[in-house]
User: What shape does this take?
Amino acid sequence: MRRERVAGTGLAGSPAPRSALALASIVGVVSLASPCVRPDPGPAADCRAGAPSPAIMLPGAPSPASDPDVPSSPDTPCAAAPDGMACIPGGPFLRGSDTGPAHSRPASQVTVSTFYMDLNEVTVAEYRACMKAGKCPEAGPRYVDYDRPRQPITGVSWHDAVAYCKAHGKHLPTEAEWEKAARGTDGRLYSWGDEPITCQRAVYMDKSGRSCGVQKKRGGHPEKGRPLEVGSRPAGLFGLFDMIGNSWEWTADWYSESWAACGAACLGTDPRGPCDGQDPCPGHRKKVVRGGSWYWPAGYNTTVYRRPHIPANQPEFHHFGFRCAASPQEAAALATKAGTP
Assistant: This one.
């Protein structure tokens, strides 16, 4: 049985309680690999993840009807994913870790309904197009050389991320959705599996420095590096890129100091965290970012590490980005819109 481990923490591994899930029989998952692994591919790189994702079907499931009036459930089969997204099949998965950071404990079985996730982090070009259309607040990188069109957008608040996803007929993923998309059903520590993080697999701070040693080309403090263009590393589970490293990603939930502290609000089917994600939420003032980034070492770049920050991203500014998710109803609406002349 595979043992959980948290890179960079020095914590001893112990057998993960997965047998009750019968994980191998719940769902077959698809891992799509990209042949492109280079420090910072240009805009025309053939490894960019813009191709439509194949549908990922539950074993024996019938072809679904794209009916936006049918509510999603763990049993909702995947339909063809909207362009630039992948379907994450519904069902239980192992969330958290009994051996990881205190905020990720304990490991427990959580269920999410079928949903869809962006293949890539939202880019600078995509966010600026939303600003130009008058649908997104003005926001974005505040430092030199963080504004290349295909770099992930950084310097946005949680509110900015919510506005962008809403403007595109999607939603900001919950923590449970994010972790299911990053981790699948087998309790893996990284989106590619349990093999150690390397610069061939993710953009993080290794012994060569931040951004895997790729420094900023302009401006001061080049040693701080920068996020690299999306899709510069192979795709992980479900064909998603950069779920580990490159840029921290906002999620919808309010932060609790651990899964145990969150209690029932973070358990069951489709948990949305404290106050069911509603605002205001007494006793809670921070949201959660996930996935690590180019700026941080290995222990932060895992599927279980959780980082809190105030949703306004002020007064202490941070380089957070995001990606969007879609329910089957939202995905069906996107497909209808895409097919409208």
Observations:
- The domain at 69-341 is CATH 3.90.1580.10 (paralog of FGE (formylglycine-generating enzyme)).
- The CA atoms of residues 110 and 258 lie 15 Å apart.
